[in-house]
Specification:
about 140 residues; alpha+beta; Ferric Hydroxamate Uptake Protein, Chain A, domain 1; five-stranded mixed β-sheet; three-stranded antiparallel β-sheet; 8 strands; about 30% helix; about 30% strand
């Protein structure tokens, strides 16, 4: 019995060493990215600014890097994360609420880029470097 136990222990140790060597080889092989090329990184194309005007004198301003093909929805998401803002979209994917300011029969959230009112849905608008974006809670 003692002889068998020693033999089993020896086989177990040899197996563990083999698995350790095999694991090291696999880690080394895959870390060279031969089998898995790196994921594409976002191409930063510049900066843009976003100002949220609550219509009561309160404003929140953000500035940050933008990437190729970034839309206004993405910019709002980034500002919400950075500024701990809460917002909700309505069933048409328009901004319905930012913080406690909710669109209603008389006021709505309006988008402006470089001083011009945006008429298309905000998720369709691609942001360009140096764009000055304004979301304003204002009369319809």
């Amino acid at each position: 019995m003692k002889k068998n136990k020693k033999k089993d222990d020896y086989i177990l140790i040899i197996s563990a060493v083999f698995l350790l060597i095999l694991s090291g080889f696999l880690i080394f092989s895959f870390s060279s990215n031969r089998f898995f090329p790196p994921l594409p990184t976002a191409n930063i194309i510049g900066e843009a600014s976003l100002t949220i005007d609550f219509g009561n004198g309160e404003r929140r301003a953000f500035k940050g890097e933008i990437v190729e093909n970034e839309n206004l929805m993405s910019v709002l998401n980034q500002a919400a994360k950075a500024g701990n803002l809460r917002y909700k979209l309505d069933e048409g994917n328009n901004v319905a609420t930012i913080e406690n300011f909710t669109a209603n029969k008389t006021k709505t959230w309006q988008w402006h880029i470089n001083g011009k009112k945006v008429e298309k849905p905000f998720y369709e608008i691609i942001v360009n470097p140096s764009d000055e974006i304004l979301i304003k809670y204002a009369q319809k």
